[in-house]
Amino acid sequence: MSGLISCDVPLAERYDLALVDLDGVAYKGHEPIEGAAEGLAGARALGMRLVFVTNNASREPESVAAQLTGLGIPAEPDDVMSAAQAAAGVLATRLAPGAKVLVIGGAGLVTAVRAAGFVVVTSADDEPAAVAQGFAPELGWTQLAEAAYAIERGAWHVASNLDLSLPTARGFAPGNGSLVGAVQAATGVVPDSAGKPAPTMYRLAVSRAGSERPLVVGDRLDTDLAGARAADYPGLHVLTGVNSGRDAVLAHPRERPDFLGADLGSLLVAHVAPTRSADGWWATRGAASRVVDGRLELHRTADGDGEWLDLCRTACAAAWAWVDEGHELASDSVPEFTVDNA
């Protein structure tokens, strides 16, 4: 069982490291997210270090850092932890330096695999010991077929991540998980995954930063926040990307966040968790929620810009407690939570 927790000081004061997702959190596609630069700058001013942890394995850390800097979020390559680096770390748990690895992916994955001491090959006929698969927009049938041939011959299949979709400026496109699924369907072999929700990247980033109090920040419950749970790190779900406040209310226990915020500005404020009264209402400030006969009920008692978010927090608390007690929650009783419907 898990629920929202309180923090009586800004999160950036309580936690010494933010493990920040990129797409949907710091930016969306090639566009900035309003308030992201200011929120991260404020967090740094309060002493919080930032490491950008991404399931994207196609790009070099230098490229990611340059994009962030161009969007007003100063970053160095060492501030980036990618799924490519995590995949190389997974390969190193089984393969000796000098082993051949067939890389199906972009420049970031090629660089990471080589940096780990492996020999990158491009054909199944090179008899690779493993296949490392990551997303790259230029990938096609020919590369996926080479991966399948190698895996059929006994190569170990390691995926940088299993994200089915990829957020872009135009919408959601097929992600690495969709391409991995094609190879898996052809071979019948289930790959190992290095990316979120596996905790590998988070733990590598925390170790590299020497952090004692890390906080995961993400927009996807099934990757960012599930990864936080898997690593046993607290997680902040921001509502600027894939998953909404309604999704949080309906989240599986292994995907629940510890904190809920509108955007990265939520790093700069204290968080008050809802508390339960004797009559079953979960309340905080001007909002309250409860579940009666499996249906969520909402109540607002005060006006304010943050009321819709507090209402969502109380809904999470009420719904999660109800489900954790072994009951079914009617999903059609859970609305979307936005400033417009507060």
Automatic annotation (TrEMBL):
The UniProt record lists the keyword Transcription regulation: no
Keyword entries, A-Z: Hydrolase
Recorded superkingdom: Bacteria
Gene3D superfamilies in the record: HAD superfamily/HAD-like
Any one GO molecular-function label of the UniProt entry: phosphatase activity
Matches recorded under InterPro entries: HAD-like_sf, HAD-SF_hydro_IIA, HAD_sf
GO cellular component terms, semicolon-separated: cytoplasm
UniProt protein name: HAD-IIA family hydrolase
Source organism of this protein record: Pengzhenrongella frigida
